[in-house]
Specification:
heterodimer, A: 241 residues, mainly alpha, 11 helices, globular, B: alpha+beta, 4-stranded mixed sheet, 45% helix
């Protein structure tokens, strides 16, 4: 189990590194590399060992399977928080947070009382403070002007990116069960006001509440999004096989 | 932005970076401790991305989205995904549902079964109603035919048509038990008088019945009269048209066609009309 979790973490980190460099505008990329280098230096000094990681899992739950699931949930939640706080590298910041807590677990396991998540939150606030004090490139002051939004359609490069995502999406939709594929395509079909009525009609047709439909569509979208991200990070020749 | 539940609205404010700092901590702690709330935050994030790519954000929210939300490569990826999904949904043909959702809901199975039962019952009801209508029609035709037949019969034999045109009398040999003649009345409108007579004990086969007047003269004779079993008695039933029975005294004489036995006599009187 521990080997599997370590493998997943290592794989995710590699995928994130290539994505970070590819997706950030040129003005950001220097900063990206700088931050990743700093983070690697930090994590290298932290040097998380297998036994530290096992101890973290034990602290999260005596049952190793449940501990692994809780670990994944905490990582996702930390990513959400770092992203909402404007962190440029929310996943890496979440990794960093977990590494710092992992190093503290030998003390915590005997002395800390309460939900582990709240301890993680204390470390989140500390990392955010560090992040806010870190010097940034001048280009970041005009962050909004440089970020590709809807206007990305205009450039050939961004059109190619959307096309790449589209091709991967087609492939991933083909891997879904037919009922899930139909549901996700119907759920996200309409714009504006028509969307509300359309979703209510869809929920009615499926015999479920609108909120249950919302959650079902979200879960299918997450599966789809994960599949598309994996696909897009593969070399172009292997993407659509 | 479209109208949202307060919780969802607060999450959108949080994601756009416009939530007051005093609310930040409680939202973030709840994200960490409550899995459902974290899921809501992820859904709000997706809705925000979809609203952005669909051009449904206000100018202010759009600016915040671009400056505060799209700050990571992760969210850039999510934006690319939202654009691709929008494009796919715009080109996808909606599936046709003849019986929408019926694979998923037992209630819809029940509805489908109910519709079939109602259709079968309606069909059965229609067939029975049609059959009943035909029988009514047939009965109506038969009634008309019967009425016509009665009219024909009435026209062919006036005075013998119906039961109420008869006077029925039961006579005993000799006369009334009180000693006098049995009197019968033949009111106007009555076409005939029917007499019920005990058959003579020695009668074999056909009987002849003579109607005689007071002077012992034969007015008419009925032939082909046979005894009929009524209860435990053998009876003779004879009918005479009223024209034969004006006021006066009469005799009915019964004799066998094939025997020489003494005839039986039945006396009676036709009284005032």
């Amino acid at each position: 189990m521990s080997t599997t979790i370590r493998f997943i973490r290592s794989n995710q980190a590699n995928a994130r590194k290539s994505r970070d460099v590819e997706f950030f505008p040129p003005a950001w990329q220097g900063h990206t590399v700088q931050w990743i280098a700093t983070r690697r230096k930090t994590t290298a000094s932290q040097d998380i060992r297998q036994e530290d990681f096992d101890r973290l899992l034990l602290w999260l739950d005596p049952d190793r399977t449940r501990a692994g699931e809780r670990y994944e949930r905490i990582h996702n939640k930390l990513t959400t928080i770092f992203a909402a706080r404007g962190g440029a590298f929310p996943e890496e910041m979440a990794d960093d947070c977990i590494n710092r807590v992992t190093q503290k677990v030998p003390e915590l396991i005997h002395s800390y009382e309460g939900e582990p998540e709240l301890y993680f939150y204390g470390v989140v606030k500390f990392i955010l403070l560090e992040w806010s004090r870190r010097p940034r490139p001048a280009e970041l002051d005009n962050m909004g002007q440089n970020i590709p939004g809807v206007e990305i359609h205009a450039t050939g490069e961004s059109v190619a990116k959307v096309e790449g995502h589209f091709a991967c999406l087609e492939k991933c939709l083909g891997q879904l069960a037919e009922s899930s594929r139909e549901l996700v395509l119907e759920y996200y079909q309409q714009d504006k006001k028509a969307k509300i009525d359309h979703r209510a009609a869809l929920a009615n047709r499926l015999g479920i509440a609108v909120n249950a439909l919302r959650i079902r569509a979200h879960r299918i979208r997450q599966v789809l999004e994960k599949c598309v991200l994996q696909c897009i990070n593969q070399p172009a020749g292997l993407r659509y096989q | 932005m479209k109208s949202q539940a307060p919780e969802s609205h607060e999450l959108v404010q949080y994601l756009l970076g416009k939530l007051p700092s005093e609310r930040l901590e409680s939202i973030e702690q709840r994200i960490l401790l409550d899995d459902d709330f974290h899921q809501e935050a992820k859904i709000a994030e997706e809705d925000l991305l979809d609203d952005y790519v669909n051009g449904e954000l206000t100018l202010e929210d759009r600016r915040l989205f671009e400056t505060n939300f799209l700050t990571s490569s992760l969210r850039q990826q999510k934006l690319q995904f939202a654009l691709a999904l929008k494009k796919k949904c715009a080109t996808a043909q909606p599936p046709v549902h003849f019986f929408p959702g019926w694979q998923r809901s037992p209630y819809l199975y029940a509805c489908a079964a109910l519709v079939i039962v109602v259709a079968v019952l309606a069909s059965l009801n229609y067939r029975l109603a049609r059959q009943l209508q035909q029988e009514h029609l047939q009965a109506s035709v038969l009634t008309k035919e019967l009425e016509t037949a009665r009219q024909h019969e009435s026209a062919a034999a006036p005075g013998w048509g119906s039961q109420d045109a008869l006077v029925v009398a039961s006579l005993q040999p000799g006369g009334a038990r009180s000693g006098g003649l049995q009197e019968i009345s033949v009111p106007s409108g009555v076409r005939a008088a029917q007499f019920s007579l005990p058959a003579p004990a020695d009668l074999r086969g056909e009987a002849l019945v003579d109607l005689l007047n007071d002077n012992n003269q034969v007015i008419t004779t009925l032939a082909g009269v046979y005894p009929q079993k009524i209860g435990d008695k053998e009876m003779l039933i004879v009918t005479f048209p009223r024209e034969y029975l004006p006021r006066g005294n009469y005799f009915l004489r019964v004799r066998g066609r094939m025997s020489d036995s003494i005839p039986n006599k039945f006396s009676f009187k036709v009284g005032s009309r």
